[in-house]
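Sorry to interrupt, but I need a hand with the structure work. Go ahead and set the record down below:
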Amino acid sequence: MKDNEHIMISETIGSKTFSWSLLNLILIVALILGVKVLFFRSPLVVAPLTVTVGAEGKATVTPDIARISFSVISEGKDPAVIQKDNTEKMNSVIEFVKGQGIDKKDIQTAGYNLYPRYDCEKGAASSIYSYPPCKQVLSGYTLTQTILLKVRDLEKVASVLAGLPERGINEINGPNFSVDDPDKYLTEARKEAFDKARAKVEAMASANGVHIVRVVTFSESTGGYPIYARMEAFGKGGDAGAPVPAPQIEHGSEEVNVQVSVTYEIR
């Protein structure tokens, strides 16, 4: 009986020892497999090598549009009379500018304002804000009619300005020169800037024995669109009966600039 018990105890101890050994083996295998999975599924991420270059592109902008605003200012006691006078003068001017080859779509009425004028009771010009205050008396009306003009043929700007005063125009502003399609010049400057950036990074890569892989990021900034006006002094209005000499108009040219920054991956 004792021998049987001894054999059973030995078998039990052996079974437990085997179970613990098997469990330890399983744990070791699982640990090894887990490390391998972690190694292959989560590789060490290394940031790519990059280089950033900057460049500037330029395009010469020559204006192709001149904008001019002009007004007929009429004064009098009877609003109907000054309206008739003002309208006749402005209609004459519109026919004149059309005769200069300016299309109807480039002629726009920007304002038609009729307002009363007041004087002091004693006849001295004043207003309700004068000191000492005086009794305001209606002395007449002022009518201002304003036209905005877009001149596409810049050779006509001088003759248009010269012909306005003799037809009753007594206020002129402009010309202001601009371009009809400014994005075209930005596109030219942008292309030049990126071409320069590419040439620069290729030269740098060649000098250092590396290769360009791809563009990582890029950005640009511009100085905006140039708007400018150049002309000799030209007064407002004048004697409607006296011919006015044509002013010398110089529209000149300007540059539009685009600065770019490009980051390349290298290897």
Observations:
- The longest strand covers residues 136-151.
- DSSP finds four helices and seven strands in the chain.
- The first helix runs from residue 2 to 41.
- Strands lie at 49-61, 65-76, 107-120, 136-151, 171-178, 212-222, 254-266.
